[in-house]
Amino acid sequence: MFSKKNRALLTDPLDDNNPITVQVLGVCSALAITVQLKPALVMTLSVVAVMGASNVIISLLRNLIPNRIRIIVQLVVVASMVILVDQILRAFAYDVSKQLSIFIGLIITNCIVMGRLEAFALGNGVWKSFLDGVGNAAGYGFILIIVAFFRELLGSGKLFGYQVIPDALYEMGYENNGLMLLSPMALITVGVFIWIQRSRNRKLIEKN
Amino acid sequence: MNRDSNSYTFLFATVMVLVVASTLAFTASSLKSLQADNVRKEKMQNILSTIGIETDREQAETLYKKYINVTLALDHMGNPDDTVDAFQIKLNNEIKKPVEEQRFPVYKAVVENISYYIIPLRGSGLWDAIWGYIALKSDINTIQGAVFDHKGETAGLGAEITQQWFMDRFKDEKVFDDSGQLVGINVSKTNNDPKDTDKDDHEVDAISGATITGDGVTDMIKERLAHYIPYFEKEKNAVATIN
């Protein structure tokens, strides 16, 4: 069940095959929701749930789905999962659902979700597809949380909404960097991460 | 069966749509009452928090009944319309009507013998609707508290209007100037008063990166309050007669 191959499905997306830093998918939402850690974390959990579930469903149906409308079928599955998550949160976890507002709906537009359905779940068994979905969602969330950590820390001086930079430092003239709150800095933070990742993991560097 | 034939494709699509539609419809309708109840209690929570009463959602209904003793739906001349339940008014729909047909809800609260006027607000932010409540003290000028909420403002920027520190800036600001003209509260980028110590300048400090949302708040407060001026005049006169 957790053979070496299956474990790789979970761990590869964290580094060698990271959806954001290597495949450059899902960057749009990585820019939008990394201003603070909390939404980034809840988004990660929601994407894990949606990707795990939709990969399983598509994998179960993979021998039934007509080839010509497979993209539409994938879209319908992802969209219904997202709506279900949204409705359930609204009824039972109203505060979390408010916190996430439009982000839940944005999961549909996340290229990673459809990308994994098309590239993996359509051709692999249920358990493997589940691991692949969860692994990729975790790889996505891992970057989200790192970026959100630096943006919230340097942009607002807080982590999870709690102030961590001491008042004394502000009195000495330290200022939060408002630029960190804007989207371009998310791109630059991701860029710096890619730089660090590739200088550490040389096989990712393209040869030409 | 041939998976690539037209009839199979149609059959698959039809079955899929039926299954998905009924699942979603079933979920939505079975959760609807729970969701509506959350929204209703949240509204009570918001109204209460403008007058400084913080409560969780469970307690909201009891406390609402305790403190909010008058709810009125006013017409544009400031006369109450008894045929309309003010709590049920959806400003979203009202705002689209001509002013003469709109009804303006006002909630009167009494806390420890001090009365407050709570006015619901609604306007536009950068992406979508923003709304809130503003409570005026019995002088019908000084703000007791304000609450804002939004549908889809950018997290970390425009969405910060829902943060306590932003809403606290409105406390004790005045909405009318010395000559009695309505000026509202300007969410200003240039007020040179980041700590909001000056409570007579009709300005609060804006949020960096949220200029359009901030302007939306400014416009919303002024636009909404303007409709209540006839009612405020009546209330002030009534108080003056009693005295």
Strand-helix topology:
The complex is a heterodimer of chains A (208) and B (243).
Chain A: H1 4-11, H2 27-32, H3 37-61, H4 70-92, H5 94-100, H6 102-106, H7 111-119, H8 126-156, E1 158-159, E2 162-163, H9 167-171, H10 183-200
Antiparallel strand pairs in A: 1-2
Helix pairs in contact in A: 1-8, 3-4, 3-8, 4-5, 4-7, 7-8, 8-10
Chain B: H1 6-50, H2 57-67, E1 68-74, H3 91-94, E2 104-111, E3 114-124, E4 129-136, E5 143-150, H4 164-168, E6 186-188, E7 203-205, H5 211-226, H6 229-242
Parallel strand pairs in B: 6-7
Antiparallel strand pairs in B: 1-2, 2-3, 3-4, 4-5
Provide a descriptive summary of the structure in words.
The complex is a heterodimer of chains A (208) and B (243). In chain A, helix 4 packs across helix 5, helix 7 runs antiparallel to helix 8 and helix 8 packs across helix 10. The termini of chain A are far apart. A two-stranded antiparallel ribbon of chain A has the order 1-2. In chain A, strand 1 and strand 2 form a beta hairpin. With 208 residues, chain A is mainly α. The model of chain A has no long low-confidence stretch (mean pLDDT 85). With 243 residues, chain B is α+β, with helices and mostly antiparallel strands. In chain B, strand 4 and strand 5 form a beta hairpin. Chain B is globular and about 85 Å long. At the A-B interface, helix 4 and helix 8 of A face helix 1 of B.
